[in-house]
Design a protein that fits this description.
The protein has a five-stranded parallel sheet with strand order 2-1-3-4-5. The protein has 13 helices and five strands. It has 268 residues and is an alpha/beta fold. It has two domains: 149 residues, Rossmann fold; 99 residues, no CATH class.
Length: 268
């Protein structure tokens, strides 16, 4: 990957994650080739071993901060990046690995590793914004290719990305999908989840799993109470639904803790 001085430079970084969002960047295919006519990919180890030195005009960061080395490295990346965008649930809210935030990390490491004393890790898995200033967060597990294209194009055009903060319910209405909760009594996180997936799961008569994290002004408490009172979903199941890809997102995290307090009351 050669770098042309006249064009802005792009770097893509990985922290604790499954690489799924970086693969989505590669899935841009023809659109990525078109974008590279306007921007130089200077650092992207998932795509090439070439490493151009910073500073970088735009950095896309995947993954959560889980070790002291991660915390140090993200500060270095921030210092080299004029604009920093986090991509995916891991980078924006700690990812599935943030389930450790609700447990004893020392107990986990002692069970998993033969020599836990060799493990140098933080007590919590957190999003990038917990450590450095982030210019824009792109949600999803994985991210939407359409939204990613919009973010990079907006950067090149010098404007704010147009990514709707509305909920999945709006996407259901736009594609004419009947509400699975109202019609079938299926638990669904759509009312409190940010749009971006195109309401994929409800289109196949499944409830939303909250892949894109909490929507703007999400009322998680109201929805969880409705699940319990109307749909008969027990507190343990409500906790598990909130603790998936975006378990450490404040709206999901705080409500899951409130529901956790009700688990014993729901147990016969």
């Amino acid at each position: 990957m050669s770098v042309t001085a006249e064009r802005p430079t792009l770097a893509v970084w990985k922290f604790a994650s499954c690489d799924g969002c970086q693969l989505e960047v590669l899935s841009l295919a023809d659109r990525l080739l078109t974008l590279t006519e306007r921007i130089d990919v200077a650092f992207f180890l998932e795509a090439s071993g070439s490493r151009a030195e910073g500073p970088y005009d735009l950095s896309l960061v995947e993954g959560s901060v889980t070790t002291p080395d991660d915390a140090r490295r993200i500060r270095e990346i921030r210092a080299q990046s004029k604009t920093l965008v986090t991509i995916g649930a891991c980078a924006t809210s700690g990812g599935i690995q943030a389930l450790r935030n609700f447990a004893d990390i020392d107990a986990f490491t002692s069970i998993v590793y033969a020599r836990p004393d060799y493990i140098d890790t933080l007590a919590k898995s957190t999003g990038i914004a917990d450590h450095v200033t982030v210019d824009f967060e792109l949600r999803g597990c994985p991210i939407s290719i359409t939204q990613l294209t919009e973010v990079v194009t907006a950067f090149l055009d010098g404007r704010r990305p147009s990514v709707a903060p509305s909920s999945v319910c709006g996407e259901c209405k736009r594609r004419g999908t009947v509400c699975v909760m109202v019609a079938h009594g299926t638990p669904c996180l759509g009312p409190i989840t940010q749009a971006g997936c195109g309401a994929l799961c409800p289109a196949y008569d499944r409830g939303c799993y909250g892949c894109f994290g909490p929507a703007e002004t999400a009322n998680a408490a109201s929805l969880m109470d409705w699940w319990g009172d109307v749909l008969g979903v027990d507190a343990g199941s409500r906790v598990r639904m909130l603790r998936t890809f975006n378990a450490n997102a404040p709206e999901f995290r705080d409500e899951s803790r409130r529901q956790d307090e009700q688990v014993d009351h729901d147990t016969p």
